[in-house]
Write a structure and sequence with these properties.
alpha/beta; 19% strand; binds xanthosine-5'-monophosphate
Length: 333
Amino acid sequence: NWKMGNFVELEIARIRELVGPKALVIGGVSGGVDSTVGATLMREAIGDRFIAIGINNGCMRLNEFEEVKRNLQDHLGINLTVVEASELFLGRLAGVTDPEKKRKIIGSTFIDVFEQEAIRIEREAENTPNSGKVEWFLQGTLYPDVIESLSWRGPSATIKTHHNVGGLPERMMNGQGLRLIEPLRLLFKDEVRAIGRQLGIHETLVGRHPFPGPGIAIRILGDVTPERVEIARKADHIFISMIREAGLYDQMSQAFAGLDTNRSVGVFGDQRVWGYIIILRAVCTKDFMSAEVFNFDNAFLQEVSRAICNQVDGVSRVVYDLTSKPPGTIELE
Ligand code: XMP
C-alpha cells in the first residue's frame, strides 16, 4: 500500500518544508492515537520546535492527563504541557443543550486557549535557541472527520461538526492567526494505527479506543454541569475497567458510558430515588463511518449495571444502547 510504505518519510519531509527552519508549532495532544501519531511525526520532523499541549477542558476521563503525560514522556520522550481550563470550558457550556452549539463552543474555546498559549510560548522562547513565532497549529484530523463535518451537498448534509474541523473560528479558516497543519487528514483510523506502529509507538497507545476532542461533553445528553460530568466520568471508568478486566477491550473498537438528559425513578433499600440514567455504548467498526453494536454476554452487562448503581451516587438505571451506525452515530451527540 503506497500510503503505508513511505507515508512517514514523505510526511516528515512535507512538514519540514511547510514549517521552514524557524517557526514553532503547537499542537493539542489528548493521548489518543491520532494526536499521539501527529505529535510523534512533528517531533521527528522539527524536534523541540514542536510543543505538545494538553488542554484540560473539564470533560476528560478520570485521571486522563496524568496517564497521558506519563505515557508520552516514558515511551516517546514528548514533554506535555497541561493547561488547566476546566472552569473556562464548563463556564461557557453552562446552560447549553444543543449538540452543535456545544461542539462549536468547545472548538472555539480550544482555539482561544491555544492562542493564549502561543503568546506565552513565544515569550518564553525569546533569547533561547528556539526563539521564533508560533505559526502553526497541529491537529489530528482524520479523513472521516473531514467527510462528516464538511458538507459538499449543502448545510443539511453536515452530520456533526467535529470539533477540529467545522468548529474552528473564521480567522483560522481565512489564513489569519495560527495556520493548520494536519498530517493525518487523508487517513482512516486503521492506517493511523499502522503508522503509529511504524513509528514505534507502544501498543497500549496505538490500541486505545478513540476518545473525541470534546470529550465527555458529547456523551452527556443536554446540559453539561460539573456534577453530570462527574457522574458520567465515574460510570465510564467502571465500565471500561470491567471491560479491560474481562479481557474484552481489544475485541471492540470503542466503548463508553454516557448520561441521559432525563432522570428515572428507582428504589434503594426502602427509599425512592429520582436518579440519573447511564447509557452504555460499545461498538465494532473498521472505519468509524459505520459500526455494529458489540455483543456482550448479558450477565456481564448486568454486573456492570450493578457496579455503576452501587458505586456512582445518584444513578438508578443503566441501559445498553443497541443502535448500529447508521442510524445512530457512535457518540451520543
Ligand atoms: P460519530 O459519533 O461521528 O463518531 O459516529 C465517529 C468517530 O469520531 C469520533 N468523534 C470525534 N473525534 N472530535 C474528535 O476528535 C470530535 O468532535 C468527534 N466527534 C466524534 C468518535 O469518538 C468516533 O470514534
